[in-house]
Amino acid sequence: MPLRLVPRLAPSRLALYGAPLLAVAATVVFGYVLFLAIGRDPLTALHAYFIAPVNSRFGLSEWLLTALPLTLIGLGLAVGFRANVWNIGAEGQLLLGAIGGGAVALALWREGVPGTFLLVCIAGALAGMAWAAIPAFLRTRFNANEILTSLMLIYVADQLLGYLVHGALRNPQGFGFPESRLFSAEAIMPNLLSGTRLHVGWLLVPLAVLAMWFLMSRTVTGFRLQVSGEAAGAAAYAGFSQKRMVWLSFLLTGGLAGVVGAMEVAGPVGQLLPEISPGYGFAAIIVAFLGRLSPVGVLLAAHLLALILIGGENVQMLGVPVAVAQLFQGVLLVALLASDVLVRYRVVRLGRLGRGSA
Amino acid sequence: MDSATISEPRPATSGGAEAPPRLRVESVTKQYPGCLANDDVSLSVEGGEILALLGENGAGKSTLVKVMYGLVAPDAGTIFIDGREVAITSPAEARAAGIGIVFQHFSLFESLTVAENISLGLDNAADRRDLGRRIREIGARYGMALDPGRHVADLSVGERQQVEIVRCLLQDPAILIFDEPTSVLTPQAIEGLFDTLRRLRAEGRAVVFISHKLEEIRALCDRATVLRGGRVVGTVEVAATSVNDLARMMIGRDMPAFGSDHAGKPAGEALAVRNLSLSPADPHGTALDDLTLVARGGEILGIAGIAGNGQEELLAVLSGERPVADPGAVLLNGRQVGRLGPGARRRLGLGFVPGERLGRGAVPPMSLSENGFLTAHWRLPLARRGIISPRRRAAFADRVIDEFRVATRSRATAAQALSGGNLQRFIVGREILAGPSALIVAYPTWGVDVAAVAAIHAALVALRDAGAAVVVMSEDLDELLALSDRMAVLCRGRLSAPMRVRDCTPERLGLLMSGATPLETADAA
Fold first, then answer.
1. Residues in B touching A8 (Cβ below 8 Å)
2. Nearest to residue B55, comparing CAs of B247, B183, B216?
3. Who is most buried in A297, B140, B195, B289, counting CB within 10 A?
4. How far is CA A305 from CA A167, A282, A283, A327, B399, in A?
5. Is the CB of A238 inside 8 Å of chain B's CB atoms?
6. Of chain A residues 159-188, which have a CB less than 8 A from chain B?
7. 3-state secondary structure (DSSP) of residue B228
8. Helix, strand, coil proportions of chain A in percent (round to 5)?
9. CB burial class (10 A; 0-12, 13-18, 19+) of residue B258?
10. Do A218 and B320 touch (CB under 8 A)?
11. pLDDT at residue A349 greater than cutoff 80
12. Exposed e or buried b for every residue in B397-434, given b needs 16+ CB within 10 A?
């Protein structure tokens, strides 16, 4: 039976919420076959993905902790993407946040200032913003493509971090290992839930979701950002400065990524290392699109992605090859994005095109 | 190619007594999402005949043309040429079947010559031999003086259209379709085009002439097939049908009154540009050359001219999208605003209806509420301290919808779901309800249905009577003559001295528009 996709007049609400469920269901079926095919017990493997990460207090806290950076950066990116500002370099802004925050923590190593962790976060945010300001400046001043500049700056940031932990910020008593001192207790993010690694930084998650929702749906600035993204011609006509939107998007994401970087080193890690982020800045791009660039969507997408990141680690402990774990993650993402087509299109059988398809 | 006539139609396969028409379209139906563009549409055209395809915007003319040219696959329907059913699924097949088309919007490369452009459109390499000579021959035979070696960038709009026509005629089509060919031409160029079309008819070719301009159809066509709402209302002999009858068929009722009484009472200067020279922002733009424009409160100033003579540049200067270095070059209610952007100028009382509705005047996927807010928030208190008041935003959109009779389900409807006429009502209404002291309107009724044209004209006249200055830029001379109190012509970046509309004749304007008459600028007047 030949099928055809016909554009919907308005996005379907049923499909809007049903499509992700359909995608998850399809992925579970696929995973069942996949794990069976490599000779693993499918139920154990699926359990490791979807149940084990969240069936204990510690598991839950780890889940929230992994979703934290994804949510915050994803929110910033979603705002920028809606304004057609393509900041791909959140990973680099995160690294600079780690460097900036780490530098403050190390500078106050022996001072014992209460609340140092707050200074660490602020320094991280400022450093992330400063790093994000470079592509913003290049774009607004020279019209340089921000996708390229922000992406390239990731590698610069990575090298900078490596240089510092091998040099200026290296622990003098660390036997030459490329890592900084452990931060003082005042610089470490206070714990939110005893017995877990979840820290107070998590409180930023609900705050940021609310703030982004308010920005995008209630403020003139958020409106202008969206107009810039939807129709640059209309933004120019209405007198909205494109340059301001570029700056705003970059500084916002840079600040959030910077905070995330600072909280990573002042949180679970507790020192500067050459490797800080497992690619949160990149994963957040997926989160932003998966969440349809809306605040609540980003929140949900970040937690879904966090779940499969943790699940991927779990199944590797069961002896599933890393390639298979990544394949499973990839299938889930592809299924989610593919199911999106149902929101804007409906499937009809050829020859049954009704009139007045509203 | 060299024979002056084309082959006679083949005998009908159906065995009918009469020869079948050169082109017959039978029961074409095309459904788009939410819109039945063609509903059981049939028409036929004989060799040696000009058939008018008449209809308002959105009546389904363009869809039918695309079906005939193989650009759109119909859901149902058949095309017969000389009585034989043909399957046309691509433009190449349409050309092979003897159908040629001249589109309203040209597809020419400005930096290439006439011959190069035509060469690009040919299906067979063999046709490229001797191209220059053949272009001259065809041009001479149909009254078009074209130099194959000239660059398209240097040609007038009328000449560019001739390039398209010659390109089409090189294929020696038995059937020619002209899609709104007069919409961009000066009165003189229209006469030239009609001459060409009559010669084509005299050779026995079948011509389909698409238009919504009734006078042109009366002057040129033999029969008219009238479309309304995707259906054929009827086919009539043009000579036996009055303009009023044609209008009634086209819009379903009597023609509403257009235009203005030309009774504006000019008061003080509201919007002015003084001696502005400006190089274009992009390489194919037009430089403004010592341009002076004065619009007074209580009058409608019409600006005529063919596209590409500095319209975009002048609009950008007036609206503030392109600020100029000299603050005194643009004056709004006596204030120097040359360096201010669009937002600041709106606060000072400027309104602007751009020519491009979707993507410029309105954000396509956004609701009418949001699109009302788009520009009105500069002048009206729809937000406080940067925080939008959803209640006031909704109330403003409702007011626009209500007062300007925008046909829409609600203010939550996306702008892109509205018809051209309804969206234009909304945009004009939004700008007027913001209470401007000077309003710039570009191409206000382009692609707009007749009822909306009348409503928009009435709204502009009412705004004028309330004391605001209205500057209307249009390519449609009839519209400007109907609406303006004074008119000026923009040609090659220079603006003529304004004339009272009573002193304007189409001939005089046409000469100014083509640059044949040296411009007297406002300074000299």
1. 33
2. B247
3. A297
4. 35, 12, 8, 14, 45
5. yes
6. none
7. strand
8. 70, 5, 25
9. middle
10. no
11. no
12. bebbbeebebebeebebbbebbbbbbbbbbbbbbbbbb
Domain assignment present for A335: no
What span, in angstroms and rounded, lies between the C-alpha atoms of B200 and B174? 10
The correct answer on CATH 3.40.50.300 for the domain covering B23-251 is: yes
Place of tokens 């006439």: B114
- Choose the closest CB to A236 out of B33, B321, B346: B321
Mean pLDDT score of chain B: 86
Predicted confidence (pLDDT) per residue in A243-268, tens digit: 999 999 999 999 999 999 999 999 88
Q: Kindly state whether residue A353 falls inside one of the protein's structural domains.
A: no
Q: Which residue matches tokens 């979840």?
A: A198
Residue B393: closest C-alpha in chain A = A218
For the segment B87-108, the average pLDDT, to the nearest whole number, is 87
Task: Give the single-character DSSP code of A352.
Answer: -
What is the band of B7 on the pLDDT scale with cuts at 50, 70, 90?
very low
Q: Say yes or no: B36 contacts chain A, CB-CB below 8 A.
A: yes
DSSP H or E segment with residue B399: helix B390-403
Q: Cβ separation of B31 and A234 shorter than 8 Å?
A: no
- Tell me which CATH homologous superfamily contains domain B269-514: P-loop containing nucleotide triphosphate hydrolases (3.40.50.300)
Number of domains forming the structure of chain A: 1
Q: Note down the domain range covering A282.
A: 67-291
| pLDDT tens for each residue of A277-312 | 888 999 999 899 888 899 999 999 999 889 888 888
Rounded (10°) CA dihedral A155, A159, A160, A163: 180
**Mind giving me the DSSP string for B7-63?**
PPPPPPTT--SSPPPSEEEEEEEEEETTEEEEEEEEEEE-TTEEEEEEE-TTSSHHH
B44 DSSP β-pair partners: B24
Give the confidence band of B127 by pLDDT, cuts at 50, 70, 90. low
Judged by a CB distance cut-off of 8 A, whether residue A242 touches chain B is no
List beta partners, residue B50. Answer: B207
Q: What is the mean pLDDT of residues B36-60?
A: 89
For chain B, where do the domains classified as CATH 3.40.50.300 start and end? 23-251, 269-514
Residues contacting A334, CB < 8 A, separation 6+: none
Question: Taking CB atoms and an 8 Å cutoff, what residues of chain A touch B416?
Answer: none
The DSSP bridge partners found for residue B496 are B521
Any idea what DSSP says for residue B153? G
- What is the mean predicted confidence (pLDDT) over A206-211? 97
Distance (Å, rounded) from C-alpha B60 to C-alpha B73? Answer: 14
Question: Residue B494: beta bridge partners?
Answer: B491
Q: Is A131 inside a domain boundary?
A: yes
What is the interface size between A and B, counted as CB pairs within 8 Å? 80
For residue B78, what are the β-bridge partners? B26
pLDDT at B307 over 70: yes
Compute the nearest-CA separation of A6 from chain B (Å).
8
Spatial distance between the Cα atoms of A330 and A352, rounded to a whole number of angstroms: 35
For residues B246, B249, B254, B260, the Cα torsion angle rounded to the nearest 10 degrees is -60
For A242, name the nearest residue in chain B, comparing CA atoms only: B321
Chain-chain contact of A355 with B374 (C-beta, under 8 angstroms):
no
State whether residue A357 is helix, strand or coil: coil
Region of A239 (left: φ > 0; alpha: ψ -120 to 50; beta: rest) is left
Reply yes or no on whether the pLDDT at B450 is more than 90.
no
Whether A5 maps to a domain, the answer reads no
Name the helix (H) or strand (E) containing A329: helix A322-339
- Indicate the pLDDT class of residue B201, thresholds 50, 70 and 90: very high
